[in-house]
């Protein structure tokens, strides 16, 4: 299908969805005080008039992206205005400077999405067009400058960020980039290493059986939570006191229904959220969201339902309302990059393509049923919320609290794609 | 961990006679590390860690590994074995407190 036709198709599809389901209604979402660990509350620390410092997990960026739109339901700021630009005269573009900017990991990096020549370009992605010979296309400097400043002027539905509008590159830097692009001419040299080129790169092959404890350290971590299940909290009760017969028996069939609307709290909750309110109320134990205990116990509870099909509620009025908001979040563009989840995680756009060295997952195939998942690159088990929060930093958006209603409803929206497919926790991923 | 000494042994799903197969095993064990007091002196006590792993195949000891405290908690061991005949592989873990934990797996051809 040609590109304009595909866009038209997506527009019709999205409009169709909105009409068929319900328009998102934000008026009855409860305010939520986070029960997450301090690193996971999405807090910004401000001392005096100094710039804010974001409180995040150890090793994560502390940059405060206050200037940019977030997923918060009460963040009504619009997307950045589509903005035509005129290339500044008086700056002479330097292709060498442009190339350095193109590769700069503190900036785009442009190579995350576009292939250009050079064995130091590693690893390049193929979300956007291959630019190896873009100089041969005889595009004008003014056109390329506009593409970099704000490509939405030409391609309204592009996933490329409006770099100039958002201030990610200065006008002078963009002129250097234009000069670099114009310097790229054919013929294309043969690749030394087929993995350099995202179009010929081998696909990652996974890590084998995720439920085998000799293969997935997450299994042992979850089994360790058996002790927690038996241990009495400050109220003198343990989980095992009420849920008799062991985790495997008493929790069988529980996990596939989560996330769901919990009337007592007036909101959608995943198991992690529910544990953070249910455990203190019954056992006296805190079980803050994103604490190691919370994630381990969530895995243990979900493991009791492994093999059972995911079956979240999509029909009750509360579920429909939550799904409408979750769907709206999925296509909402946020952050400095002005990206939506759908930009990277639907096949209409970038799913199944490489972003740098990472193959982007297609969220509509169901990607939640193996969470919490063991991450070999982090040597830790992550639940879906932490994975959401991890996405926020490269987007240039402040993360929300891990147990926010926004994330819970987005999780519900993603989980309905897993309906009918077997739960398999913990997963194992890079 | 709730079950010290639980041993899990894994073999490849299909084995042919004469194959060199990888045996993977995992044992739940605290593998206590050396502790030091505030002055930095090593606390003298009997530390509980696995110090010997014995592999038997077809009733014969085929390999013995001597291990130390430098091995992690809940250790994972992998080694290769030539599958000459169908039969039982047994891996036995001995710890310093006299604990003996055993896992078995059957080698079958087909």
CATH topology of the largest domain in chain A: Cytochrome Bc1 Complex, Chain D, domain 2
What overall form of chain A do the CA principal axes indicate?
globular
CATH fold label of chain B:
Immunoglobulin-like
The spatial strand order of the largest sheet of chain A comes to 8-7-9
Would you tell me the overall average pLDDT of chain A?
93
**CATH architecture tag of chain B:** Sandwich
Provide the domain count of chain B. Answer: 1
CATH level-1 class of chain B: Mainly Beta
Tell me the span between the first and last alpha carbons of chain A.
33 Å
SSE order of chain A, one letter for each helix or strand = HEEHHHHHHHEEHHHHEEEEHHE
What are the defining features of this structure?
heterodimer, A: 430 residues, mainly alpha, Cytochrome Bc1 Complex, Chain D, domain 2, three-stranded mixed sheet, two-stranded antiparallel ribbon, B: 110 residues, Immunoglobulin-like, 7 strands, 0% helix
């Amino acid at each position: 299908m040609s590109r304009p036709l595909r866009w038209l198709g997506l527009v019709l599809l999205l409009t169709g969805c909105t009409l068929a389901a319900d328009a998102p209604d934000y008026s009855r979402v409860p305010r939520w005080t986070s029960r997450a660990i301090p690193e996971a509350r999405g807090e910004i620390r401000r001392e005096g008039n100094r710039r804010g410092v974001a409180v995040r997990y150890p090793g994560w960026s502390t940059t405060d992206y206050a200037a940019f739109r977030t997923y918060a339901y009460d963040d009504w700021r619009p997307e950045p205005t589509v903005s035509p630009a005129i290339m500044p005269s008086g700056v002479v573009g330097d292709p060498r400077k442009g190339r350095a900017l193109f590769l700069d990991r503190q900036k785009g990096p442009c190579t995350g999405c576009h292939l250009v020549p050079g064995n130091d370009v590693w690893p390049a992605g193929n979300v956007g067009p291959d630019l190896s010979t873009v100089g041969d296309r005889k595009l004008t400097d003014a056109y390329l400058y506009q593409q970099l400043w704000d490509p939405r002027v030409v391609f309204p539905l592009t996933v490329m960020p409006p770099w100039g509008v958002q201030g990610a590159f200065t006008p002078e830097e963009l002129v250097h980039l234009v000069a670099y692009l114009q310097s790229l001419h054919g013929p294309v040299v043969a690749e030394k290493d087929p993995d350099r080129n995202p179009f010929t790169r081998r696909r990652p092959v996974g890590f084998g059986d995720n439920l085998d404890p000799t293969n997935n350290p997450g299994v042992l971590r979850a089994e360790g939570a058996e002790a927690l299940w038996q241990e009495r909290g400050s109220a003198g009760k343990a989980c095992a006191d009420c849920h008799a017969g062991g985790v495997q028996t008493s929790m069988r069939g529980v996990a596939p229904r989560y996330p769901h609307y919990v009337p007592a709290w007036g909101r959608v909750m995943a198991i992690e959220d529910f544990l953070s309110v249910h455990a203190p109320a019954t056992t006296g134990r805190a079980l803050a969201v994103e604490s190691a205990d919370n994630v381990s116990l969530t895995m243990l509870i979900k493991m009791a339902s492994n093999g059972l099909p995911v079956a979240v509620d999509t029909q009750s009025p509360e579920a429909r309302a939550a799904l409408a908001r979750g769907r709206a979040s999925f296509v909402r563009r946020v952050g400095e990059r002005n990206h939506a989840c759908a930009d990277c995680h639907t096949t209409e756009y970038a799913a199944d393509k490489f972003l740098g060295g990472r193959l982007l997952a297609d969220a509509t195939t169901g990607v939640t049923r193996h969470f919490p998942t063991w991450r070999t690159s982090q040597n830790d088990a992550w639940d879906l919320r932490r994975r959401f929060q991890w996405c926020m930093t490269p987007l240039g958006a402040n993360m929300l609290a891990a147990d926010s209603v926004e994330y819970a409803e987005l999780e519900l929206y993603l989980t309905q794609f897993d309906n009918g497919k077997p739960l398999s926790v913990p997963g194992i991923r890079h | 961990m709730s079950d010290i000494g639980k041993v899990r042994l894994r073999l490849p799903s299909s084995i042919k006679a004469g194959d060199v197969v990888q045996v993977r095993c995992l044992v739940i064990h605290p593998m206590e590390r050396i502790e030091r007091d505030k002055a930095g002196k090593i606390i003298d006590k009997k530390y509980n860690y696995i110090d010997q792993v014995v592999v038997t195949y077809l009733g014969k000891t085929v390999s013995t590994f001597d291990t130390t405290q430098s091995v992690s908690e809940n250790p994972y061991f992998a080694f290769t074995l030539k599958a000459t005949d169908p039969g039982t592989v047994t891996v036995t873990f001995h710890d310093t407190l006299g604990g003996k934990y055993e896992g078995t797996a059957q080698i079958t051809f087909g």
